[in-house]
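Case study 2.
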Amino acid sequence: MATYIMLMKMTEQGVKDIKKMPQRIEESIKSAEAIGGKLIGFYATMGEYDYVVIGEAPNNEVMMTFLLGLGSRGNVKTMTLTAFSREELAQMLKKLP
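Prediction:
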């Protein structure tokens, strides 16, 4: 499965309804799992982003479906990065001429 790092900022709506955040996280975990994804880690952060989430999905289409659903709820805006492990990077480097 591919690994993704999602950087999230709360919207005004998300801040207004912050007490429901634990429930929204659980709902998001279930929706990711329902389409074949998996949450690896969730962190509340200080700084430019409010949350950092690490997840896995079998492909970009599954991740995009998850992100569209998450964004449509209006509580967070996301920036998503595809991540590669040390082992995956080593394999890529072996292919260099």
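The two ends are 27 Å apart (CA to CA).
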